[in-house]
Design a protein that fits this description.
By secondary structure, the chain is an alpha/beta fold. The protein has helices at residues 3-10, 22-25, 36-45, 64-72, 84-96, 110-116, 135-142, 169-178, 191-215, 220-238, and strands at residues 54-58, 76-81, 103-107, 120-126, 146-159, 181-188, 242-251.
């Protein structure tokens, strides 16, 4: 899978041709991936907001989670995303909130970053499971950046039965064990909050999709395909077949 394909998959797209239009489609949507308050709740509950501790937000999107953590915890936070327009948005938001000294953003490939960035006390990975071939590849990559005794927070979900082709809880537990991780906590999403967010975001996406179809009628099928994928993913979570939430995982290689 090349870089453009990985980037498309990280944005829940199956065609890299959509990439030039993502900034327009997503201009009204700030939170991409995990819910900032849920991530912060786990950091607070498990006393992970240690002054000066290094935190790495991989696939940070527009930086919403990293910026939220920088507001409430004295962490040294770095946000990485392959999509430069999102990094530009993140930097502008951090500057506007005068948080530049506490959170930094860089446009870079996650797969290159994990090879050179080491010993982070906290690593965050939200909404990026799709770019890995499987859970073993995900945890093998991420553990390169986490220090011994460090933690991983990730937004995802697991299938409650065999009715949908998605990872089961036991799949997560097996992959975690294979790579020296231990499942510590799971904060389920508040279904009412998620429903309100997704309904609002879908309304924005439908509006921007209609606008792009008028401006680029020859690409109408491309835009419709992207919208259909977003709606299908949301319908899956809302069906209850996948239990979505925020995981807290500890890395102990022993």
């Amino acid at each position: 899978m090349d870089v453009k394909q990985r980037l498309a998959r990280s944005l829940s797209a199956d065609n890299p041709e959509i990439l030039p239009f993502i900034p327009y489609l997503m201009q009204d949507i700030g939170v991409l991936g995990g819910i900032p308050a849920d991530v912060a709740a786990l950091v607070k509950k498990h006393s992970l907001g240690v002054p000066g501790a290094k935190a790495l937000d991989l696939a940070c999107g527009k930086g919403t989670v990293a910026i939220h953590l920088a507001r409430y915890f004295p962490l040294d936070i770095r946000g990485i995303d392959l999509f430069e327009p999102f990094i530009k948005d993140a930097r502008e938001k951090a500057e506007k909130m005068t948080l530049e000294g506490r959170v930094r953003f860089e446009a870079a490939d996650l797969f290159e970053i994990v090879e050179r960035e080491k010993t982070y006390a906290l690593v965050i990975l939200n909404g990026a499971t799709e770019i890995f071939d499987d859970l073993d590849n995900l945890f093998a990559a991420v553990k390169k950046t986490v220090e011994e005794g460090g933690h991983l927070i990730m937004d995802d979900g697991f299938a409650v039965d065999d009715s949908v082709p998605y990872y089961r809880r036991e799949d997560f537990e097996k992959a975690l064990q294979n790579h020296g991780f231990k499942w510590l906590d799971f904060k389920p999403v508040d279904s009412d909050i998620v429903k309100a967010i997704t309904e609002r975001n879908l309304a924005f996406l439908r509006k921007r999709t209609d606008e792009l179809k008028k401006s680029y009628p020859d690409k109408a099928a491309l835009f419709e395909r992207y919208l259909d994928r977003q709606e299908g993913q949301i319908a899956l979570y809302e069906s209850g077949a996948v239990k979505k939430g925020t995981f807290l995982i500890r890395y102990d290689s022993d």
